Amino acid sequence: MRFVRSMQLRELDWREALQRGVAEDSRASRRAARALAEALRQDAWKEYKQTVWERECMIDSQQKGARGR
């Protein structure tokens, strides 16, 4: 009887350890996915700001050129 109980506890410990490992792995995966999404969002924002800035510089230079004529 003692052997059966120890085997049941061992099985329970193994199952619990597996569930904890899976939970930790999924948390790490979600964290990595969020970090990647944030990095992509930041890159898109920087690209947008750069494009707007270049467009504004181009418009300013064209307006200055038109005034100088």
TrEMBL record:
It comes from the Eukaryota. This is Uncharacterized protein.
